[in-house]
Predict the structure.
Amino acid sequence: MLASPAFQRWAADFPLTRPVAARRARGLFDVTAGFVYSQILFACVELSLFDKLAERARTASDLAPEMDMDLVAADRLLRAAVAIDLLERRGVNAKGEVRYGLGKLGVAMPGNPGIAAMVRHHRMLYHDLDDPLALFRGELAETELGRYWSYAGSERPAADGDDRVAEYSTLMSASSGFVAEDTLDAYSLKDHRCLMDVGGGEGRFLIHAGQRWPHLQLMLFDLPAVVARAEKNFLEAGMAERARMVGGDIKADGLPEGADIISLVRVILDHNDDGALAILRAARQALPPGGTLLITEPMSETPGVEPVGDAYFGLYLLAMGSGRTRPPREHRTMLETAGFGDIRLVRTRRPLQTRVVVAKAV
Ligand SMILES: C[S@@+](CC[C@H](N)C(=O)[O-])C[C@H]1O[C@@H](n2cnc3c(N)ncnc32)[C@H](O)[C@@H]1O
């Protein structure tokens, strides 16, 4: 019945069903037009509009020359951004021209440069999604994201040099703030002695953890070229003495011992099931009995934000050519197989960004 156009017409007229029908129609339209909304956001980011308007509200005629557009085009872009809540109208100036400022979504952009970095990065994903059926059917010889994430399809990722890891490492660093904060708020490291962050990138999570818990010893494990990039960050944070850095390939080399807690921040989702299990086994081997493993990453089937784990990351990882988001129950099964017990899901503030699963080595 819901599928029938006659019923839909009736539901859109009948007072009791009208609001639901309107919401559904809007919902379907938003899915249909989502790629347009994303490109409006992309244009605003490329033009640094959020930073400009964070300073003061401005008019289309004032902005047009900086945007390298004529007034009509500038006005069209600003209206479009208002329509999707990135910007808002802030009254008119003495000449009667509308002033634009940050809208209720755009207001979060200047303070979180990681979001703009992701929006720019999406140019590649957008390209890879051009023919979604070819992507699903595995018919694309190469994808932009597969090239970008050099370790994703590599047999010997430890051989990658700085030129292969620099771009993704910078992006990960820029986007790690929320994940680090929410994870460290969700799980206390007070009773731990030494934290090893595996696949820890340029060390942002470890530096956050070290700042919050000054008693903690720190270990970073990542590919050699990535670890080399991290060293300067520990020096800048005044933590070089507390941090030990080890470069290697988790799957080929295993992990060094010495930590009583290992974290995997946005790492497991990058790997197919055999790779993910190999990483969990390596973590189990490196931990003493009773040691803790903490997984923090976006997960599948997260209530209220299903599109993030299952639609966005589902397709992102498909384009990257490796990994998948998993629901917490699959983390549990893999953890049990790898030799962990006492597995629990810890509540995080923004499950859209990350969810946390903690387990003990048995
Ligand atoms: C998605 S990034 C996450 C980085 C960081 N944890 C964060 O959340 O910002 C995955 C990290 O795993 C590392 N990695 C991937 N495969 C690896 C392997 N086989 N051995 C060691 N590190 C690896 C990558 O170099 C990268 O830094």
